[in-house]
Design a protein that fits this description.
- The complex is a heterodimer of chains A (175) and B (260).
- Chain A has 4 helices and 7 strands, in the order H-E-E-H-E-E-E-E-H-E-H.
- Chain A is α+β, with helices and mostly antiparallel strands and 175 residues long.
- In chain A, strands 1, 2, 3, 4, 5 and 6 form a 6-stranded antiparallel beta sheet that branches.
- In chain B, the strands form 2 sheets. An 8-stranded antiparallel beta sheet of chain B has the order 1-2-3-4-7-8-9-10, with helices on one face. A two-stranded antiparallel sheet of chain B has the order 5-6.
- The longest helix of chain B is centred in the first third of the chain and has 18 residues.
- The chains are: A alpha+beta (175), B alpha+beta (260).
Chain lengths: 175, 260
């Protein structure tokens, strides 16, 4: 279970790392404006029918190394009734502002990511934050269901987001 | 149940060149010292080629504080490549976008390809190096294809297409959230016809440079790339219209064999 989750998180971090958004400066958005994203309880995730496959000739199938996205949904659904556990990431100071995320994990899935802090310096940057923030969060979640290994097309970059997310996941015990 | 990745598989994320690099090494893996070499290489490239650091070789060459013969062989090699690509793209690719030396458009792709070669020499026959959305894949993914999602320029959380294959490079040029940032080197104006252009090839250096040049060409890039052996492309216009080379199937899937 943990193995599978790790490979999911690896993919998420890889994807998130490539989705960049630039938060310029230091005008804190009101707390109420901070976006969050959550997966539907039933999951928009992986096609139910998919199983990790290794159709190659040499290597034996290895469930933990299959596409990071299909494995966890089919093999380890969140246990019903089990409460989410939340972890606050470190507040990361970037040259554009402060970023801090909070992740919720249920079983082997990230069920929610939200910003505890997201700062911007000017109206234009705040506007970008308000658009990019939710997209970044949604991307983290949809990375669990997108059947791809990586993404071409840099859009947003947030070192702060990545670092804060990683620190939250470290606290959750995934190294 | 172990809490580690399968033996030999590893993913490393590194911040460099103002973006994020993701290095995904499948089996057979390489030692940690090889990954450290790759990371060192990326930061060396950044320090040498950065136009933001006034002490970099590129900055000093641009200010004529250095002569070409005083520069590193790597820098000279990049400038030679740039001249060839400028000729091959009818001037649409230029390392003097604003009249000032700025080889950034070539350096990232080249750094990625060199990083991949470094892994290959160390014995990694299956890996992917992604630098800010420019992707070099070597071998396959655990016995199957690498699947590379193309970010939808109009709906950022969606994947517009998936490129699947082995031993391939994928680069996407597009306008960032802060608006058009690619200039037509012929007249200095921002190009706006396309929202994104994805080019698929075998090596990321040339693939990335052609994505940059093709984006400046607009839709004409599709005919241009159709005529080049070894490349396929998908263009998405500002209006959301799609045009692709014949090898880029309507389903949005392309296999490495279509490149040959």
């Amino acid at each position: 279970m943990k193995r599978v989750l790790f490979s999911v998180l690896g993919t998420i971090l890889g994807l998130v790392g490539l989705l960049t958004f630039k938060t310029h400066g230091h005008t804190a958005l009101g707390a109420t404006a901070l976006p969050s994203a959550a997966l539907p309880a039933t999951g928009t995730s992986a096609p139910a029918a998919s199983t990790p496959s290794a159709t190659g000739t040499g290597a034996p199938p290895d469930p933990s190394s299959g596409s990071a996205t299909t494995g966890p949904a089919s093999t380890s659904p969140p246990a019903a009734g089990q409460p989410d556990k939340s972890y606050d990431g470190t507040a990361v100071q970037t040259r554009y502002g402060v970023v801090q995320v909070k992740v919720s994990i249920n079983g082997s899935k990230i069920t929610n990511v939200s910003f505890l802090q997201l700062t911007a310096d000017d109206p234009r940057s705040a506007d970008i934050n308000s658009q990019a923030g939710p997209l970044l969060l949604q991307e983290t979640l949809s990375a669990q269901s997108a059947n791809v290994n990586t993404i071409s097309g840099a859009t947003y970059t947030s070192e702060g987001y990545l670092q804060s997310l990683q620190s939250a996941l470290d606290q959750a015990g995934f190294k | 149940m172990s809490s580690t990745l399968p033996a030999g598989a590893e993913r490393h994320v590194e911040h460099c060149m103002g973006t994020v690099f993701s290095i995904d090494i499948r089996r057979p893996g390489v030692g940690a010292e090889v990954v450290a070499d790759v990371v060192r290489w990326l930061h060396w490239v950044d320090a040498t080629f950065s136009t933001y650091q006034s002490s970099s070789e590129v900055s000093r060459l641009g200010r004529q504080e250095l002569t070409l013969s005083q520069c590193s062989p790597e820098l000279r090699s990049v400038l030679e490549m740039a001249a060839q690509i400028e000729a091959a793209t009818d001037g649409y690719f230029s390392i003097y976008p604003n009249g000032v030396l700025d080889p950034s458009g070539l350096v990232k792709g080249w750094a990625i390809e060199q990083a991949s070669n470094l892994l290959l020499r160390a014995g990694s026959t299956s890996h992917c190096v992604n630098g800010g959305g420019d992707v070099q894949c070597v071998g396959g993914y655990d016995g199957g294809d690498w699947r590379i999602g193309i970010a939808d320029p109009h709906r950022r959380t969606d994947v517009a297409a998936v490129v699947a294959g082995t031993d391939l490079a994928v680069a996407t040029s597009g306008t960032a959230e802060r608006g058009p940032h690619i200039l037509d080197p012929h007249n200095g104006s921002a190009v706006t016809e396309l929202a994104s252009l994805t080019v698929v090839g075998s090596g990321i250096t040339l693939t990335d440079a052609y994505a940059t040049a093709g984006f400046a060409m607009g839709l004409a890039a599709i005919d241009w790339l159709e005529g080049l052996a070894g490349f396929q492309a998908l263009a998405i216009t500002r209006e959301g219209e799609r045009r692709a080379t014949s090898g880029f199937r309507t389903a949005g899937l392309v296999s490495a064999t279509a490149l040959r």
